[in-house]
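Fold sample X.
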Amino acid sequence: MIDILWILVCSGLVFSMQAGFMCLESGLTRSKNSINVAVKNLADFGISVTLFTSVGYALMFGASHGGWWGNSYWFLHFDQTPFKAAIFLFQVMFCSTATTIVSGAIAERIHFNAYLLIACLISGCIYPLFGHWAWNGLLDGQALGWLGQLGFVDVAGATVVHSMGGWVSLAALLVIGPRLGRFPAPGKRRKIQGSNLPLAVLGALILWFGWLGFNGGSTFELSPKVPHILLNTILAGVAGMVVATALTWQRRKVPEVEMVINGSIAGLVAITAACNLVSAPLALVIGGTGGAVMVLVSAQLEQWQIDDAVDAVAVHGAAGFWGTLAVGLFGNPELIGTGLSKGSQIAVQFFGASVALLWGFGITYIILKLINRRFPLRVNAEAEQAGLNVSEHQATTELHDLFAVMEKHAQSENLSLRVPVDPFTEVGQIAKRYNQVMDALETANEEIYQLNEQLKADNLRLSAELDITRQLQQMLLPREKDLEAIADLDISGFMEPAAEIGGDYYDILNHDGRIKIGIGDVTGHGLESGVLMIMVQTAVRTLLANNEQDPKKFWDTLNRTIYANVQRMGSEKNLTLSLLDYYEGKLCVSGQHEELIIVRANGDIERIDTIDLGFPIGLDDDIRDFVDQTYVQLFTGDIAVVYTDGITEAENLAGEHYGLDRLCHIVKNYRHLNASAIQKAVVDDIRQHIGSHTIYDDITLVVLKQKSV
């Protein structure tokens, strides 16, 4: 009876691992999915016990049919002696362990009913059939499964239980894909932080406790071997934890909690196959290597963008494979008892672990891939973002309620909504403070509403004034028919303000066969800038009408007029301004503004710097000493381009400027077209560069193309 008692105690210890996996997986996933993860662990236990009782135990331990499957004990119809009942209870806990491993790996993205299907698949078919191949007949002291007959040894299930769970997880992961946001782009990865790492650590400790029964009960007797098995189990778990922590600390410069946890579990998985076949020092080696294997495989899976939420594939699949291979590498041949040489034993162990990989991964991948084509296993993006607690179970939490009300506030702007408050929890205290903030905002909103009502009349008046100013600006721009009347030049202009009232200025005047082109940029936007732009346009036209030919007098009169008005307005506005006087193929350039671009008919580019040709208008009362001029000869097909910095400094979403080089490149490429087509090509290219980004400054462009000289 002492052996029966020991098996029952160990069955209870293995059962506690269900709680360990629940805590571990819930802690390593986000709180919006914690309920779903927890209930999956409970549900898969019910499914695995049901299916293992009805068909799984028969397939695994029933009378062997050629070493491939069992065909007796269906629906638990066997002689239920106390010992056999205890054995069944112990084995059904193993089946539940293999099944629940999958839960954490594919967490946060799979339908609950799809997960139940996977649980049925592994507990009713995949696990018991491989278990038959490896373990059938061993309870009676003989190997009847075909792998067991080859000499394959797995004392407590490093491959039969743990690797099988890992390989099924890998297949499911490849079918359903990574969580949203886990891999935002090729080569990019974003860590998804678990919601409760202390709970995950508790889960790991419970797993350690359960592992004592997992390995210790696999002798099926309370023999002198048990203390040694338990010692090896503890030492391997510690070694795995230390090695995994050291490796990740050195690699990532931080001791990640997840790797401390998973390293210890990987060490426990690794020793499971040889827990009674090696010495204590070798248990340290096997466990430590298991931790290292876990770290390497985890990094590789991440490199391949396979999103294992709890690293189940690396911890259970890879470490289990290593632990099974370690039986041949380090196991005492006398204790193994297969009669194989070391080399043959290693080969058999490798073969058996590989068969488990091919079987567990292959059959799962094929079945899930076929099902997924017709019935998607994965929840949709909206459900995944909301969290499976709500989308799959309609189970809310205080934190969810808080976020739900915050989301409604953001969408509806209804400040009267309040969060339910439980004063005895941390989230409840946050909700209480949030409601107090909303009370204050609602009061302030009412005051703002009253103020807005008072300002409506003023806003309507101001809007009308702005509209008039905007219309006046547009009315003063050169007209197409005036530009077409210019004999020697093909001219096209474009201006688009960034705000309602722009600060850019351009004008083209035809006076007695001489063409004057003006372009300027007033500081800022809005009504003041727009008014100043109109002042400049009026002053330039007045001076031209008075036939002022002296550049010094022209600039001095223009500047003093604008300066006086700016001072009267109490404004700090000013503008950069260039004037181009054209006559019979020659341009006279004066005033300080952006560079003048000249693109010759053969494609050569000249850039005329205007920094030394003038001074900002309206900034000082006397700028005569700064005024100068330069001349440019235009030949047939030559192009002159003037512009404001709204073009060269236009930004895209990456913050990159359009730039003068790109402007020159576009004009050069389209130089064979007329001025209007060149202007359109430039504007289209600027819009393509800006994309959906905000336009911060006015865009103004004038293109001149010399006709025949």
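Fold sample Y, listed below.
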Amino acid sequence: MLIEHDVVQAPLRYFLAAAVALLCVMTLGLGSAQAGELSGTFTDAATGHPIEGASVRVMGTHETAKTDAHGRYAFELPDGVYELAIRAEVGDAVYESRMVRQYVPQILEARPYVYTDWFLNQGIDPQKHAPGMPSFSGEGPEGGPETVDLRDLFGSGEPNPLYYTIPSDQPATIRVGRRRESTGSGGCSDSVNPIVAIESMSLDEYVKGVLPPEIGVFQNIPGASEVYKAFAIAAKSYALYFVLRYGPGNRRSLGRSVPPNNYTWFHIDDTACNQRYTSQRLTITTNAANAVANKIMAKRSDPNSLDKYEYAASCGKHGTRPEHQTALVSDRPPVSSCVGSWCGHNSCAGHETNTAVSGSNRCLVRGICQWGAASWGEAGKSYTWLLSHYQPNLALRNIGQTGPATVALSGYAYTDAGDIAGSGVAGVTISLSDGQTTSTDAQGSYLFDAVREDLGSVEITTTKSGYDTATRTKDLEPGVTNWGSIQISVSTNTPPDPDPDPDPADVGTPDTGSPVDAGADAAQPGDADSQADTSPPDTQTNDVGTSTEQDLQDPHKAEFGPLVQPSSGSYDSGGCGGCAATSGANPSLPGGLLAAWMSISWIFFRRRRS
């Protein structure tokens, strides 16, 4: 009967709709990644004062946050490795920086800083062991040993040579031990300040993370770029010594596994016990490191030998005594650089006493004086002059391959523009117009380590069975990781796969290399900013973000570049096709859910027939 049929059909439609929705939710849950907190505290480096109201953005996504009164920010993100762009207005200046290799689950407490003298000028006292300020400046005894034997710096362990033969090419990586307390003020022994993570990266990437915590506060001093170039070379030469010293037969071993890569040995630690390293990047320091990427310092008398020299923090104006000579070199620049009211070149910090000068402030320095170099830089001296002044027994030489500059290109192949980090699709083939090809990992992210910067832009193309091909163009920005996320949609025209079992090559296995060597940045979210691709470079010397101020204020205005075909199934379109597109899961149902669906269908089919 018609009336009876209508009465039965209405509940049937509602129940079937509910069953479809339930299956979609279950399918979505199977495809989603586990979420965790990514948080940190943003403060002024010199004073420790919290920065309120700064914008923090997860690169390549719509995820943004504002720091609270304590400088704290927090995100809930799927497991992976991320990069953050931070923008803060302090006084009359705008400061921008990036935080790279931010892990979820979180391993280290994130402590990004703004390097400025604004708070010092407000009368706030500097904090002890301030990051970005020369280590322990003005806090050590004025006196010191008359001579320094470099062998004393390494203890009595063997092998312990002072010199190593410089390799013809750069080592592939350096392993950095990340200690719980990053300044080293609490010591460097595993008992009081343990290694909590070991990261592996190129020497050049490592240097970019050394300059901000060592001397980042100098960025606004005239001539700062030349100072940073000099210290980039010094930091790289120093790091190379540790890479060569701690070879296969002489490891700095922990005897246990540590996250995020389960390495058990490292070359160098991230505190002032060696030299500071953090995950923060500034444009001015990154550009300086890139400008001298192939240069190190070698023995002047033997350009094939690396000479481990003392890497000094600060000094007085009464001279420097380079290693291997007794003659004093005057170190009295015509200007004295200051950060706020703190002028470090006027005081000693535990260095050698100049016996030819009476009274206080009569110290010498071995190696490169940080405050002195800043003062000479402000006086207009070049980085080559600075190095020859402080290290007359060393000479510059090139190491490694030369060729066109390259940039890293990373991003997600994702399905849901509202949840890029959570809707990545594994096993997507990513092809570039320069001929390079790779695949997305389990989180749906990809990484190209070296894309030629002089190309200007590249075309990114995605292919995967069951998804429409998508293409976008990405303009390349020098000096930073470029983000090229691309949205893909489930195909409505692809015939069913005769083989229901997924192809192992198609599901996206994580890179078999170390997660940081080849995959740490690959797990980063992608760039959702077409504005960042086309906008002119920011004139701020400390800007490293590719996002514009407008992007940070209104991230939902971001665009994703041209697609070959628009998405055929949006989150609001309904049906399991839209659900699968949102979650990034395989559109085919797992066996258990398919059986449940068939059971529901059979029950209502029998009900209707009866």
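Sample Y note: The CA atoms of residues 142 and 348 lie 5 Å apart.
Also: The chain has a mean pLDDT of 75.
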